[in-house]
């Protein structure tokens, strides 16, 4: 069965319940959220009663909680030696929050080496991840390293780098990968040959390590190292290629999450994009439909 959803908002008042209600509107059966603003570390106390209510609503709407994903904030950069303890401490708190919420998957940008060089950067990521995972007893959440576009000095831009990180993590059980189609395109992978990408990935890391796929079209051409998401079918990757990835047999049990831009910055496109994906048919009038029906 197709497991599809989108990034949704998380607010102080409704917390997880708000995420579920928003996902139901989109006819999604999973979702991803930030536990606070992605750019800062302000986090609200998780309310147990709200979580229980949210779990109930998920059950009623066939949302399997084990497919729900949290995205760690961008400000965590395990490469950066100047605020290494800030990043590891915050990641540890985030991992704890996920455990308290019962979340199984936490997506993390591996980091940017900011001039330290690739090798040093990768080794700092490994050090940070080991520190966090080794010091979180009874952890039930897997950290999924996201494939990155190569904007600036980002690491995790190719399978070899991700393999190097994973191979050096002590707690292999709690580390995995989140593919992002826009990032893969921008990093130089031709998604028309997605099967050969997966084949290589399987040889180096193992397909079973893929815990999430971010489904985004790209505003830029292959190898642009830009990272600007486009709506489904309106970018350089294209609808048919994205559909093939979404319905790839090897990734059937992996949640697919849309992180495409709002239309005119105000209208969420997810209900319409999810509908196109379920129907496997591109809607030429997507943008107008979204504007008219909102
Ligand atoms: Fe991301
Ligand atoms: Fe992403
Ligand atoms: Zn991105």
Notes on the structure:
With 294 residues, the chain is α/β, with parallel strands linked by helices. The protein has one domain (4-292): Divalent-metal-dependent TIM barrel enzymes (TIM Barrel, Alpha-Beta Barrel). The protein has ten helices and ten strands. The protein has helices spanning 15-25, 48-60, 84-101, 118-134, 159-167, 181-187, 194-204, 239-246, 270-279, 286-293, and strands at 4-7, 30-33, 69-71, 105-108, 142-146, 175-180, 210-215, 217-218, 229-230, 256-258. Strands 1-2-3-4-5-6-7-10 form an eight-stranded parallel β-barrel. α1 runs parallel beside α2 (48-60) and α4 packs across α5 (159-167). The two termini are 29 Å apart. The structure holds fe (iii) ion (2 copies) and zinc ion. The site of zinc ion has 5 residues, from α6.
């Amino acid at each position: 069965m197709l497991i599809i959803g989108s990034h949704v908002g998380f607010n102080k008042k409704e917390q997880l319940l708000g995420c579920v209600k928003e996902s139901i509107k989109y006819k999604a059966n999973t979702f991803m959220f930030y536990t606070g603003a992605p750019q800062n570390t302000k986090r609200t106390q998780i309310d147990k009663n709200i979580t229980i209510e949210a779990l109930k609503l998920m059950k009623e709407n066939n949302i399997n909680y084990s497919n729900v994903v949290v995205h760690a904030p961008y400000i965590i950069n395990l490469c950066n030696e100047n605020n290494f303890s800030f990043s590891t401490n915050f990641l540890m708190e985030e991992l704890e929050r996920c455990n308290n919420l019962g979340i199984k998957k936490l997506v993390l940008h591996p980091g940017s080496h900011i001039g330290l060089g690739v090798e040093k950067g990768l080794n700092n990521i490994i050090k940070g991840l080991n520190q966090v995972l080794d010091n979180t007893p009874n952890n039930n959440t897997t950290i999924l390293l996201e494939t990155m576009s190569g904007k600036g000095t980002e690491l995790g831009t190719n399978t070899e780098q991700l393999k190097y990180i994973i191979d050096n993590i002590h707690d292999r059980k709690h580390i995995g990968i989140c593919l992002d189609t826009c990032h893969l395109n921008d990093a130089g992978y031709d998604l028309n040959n997605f099967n050969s990408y997966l084949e290589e990935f399987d040889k180096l890391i193992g397909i079973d390590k893929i815990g999430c796929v971010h489904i985004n079209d790209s505003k830029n051409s292959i190898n642009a190292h830009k990272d600007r998401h486009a709506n489904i079918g309106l970018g350089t990757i294209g609808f048919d290629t994205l559909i093939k990835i979404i319905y790839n047999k090897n990734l059937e049990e992996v949640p697919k999450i849309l992180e495409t831009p709002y239309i005119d910055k105000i209208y969420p496109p997810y209900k319409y994009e999810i509908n196109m994906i379920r129907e496997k048919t591109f809607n030429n009038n997507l943008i107008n439909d979204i504007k008219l029906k909102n």
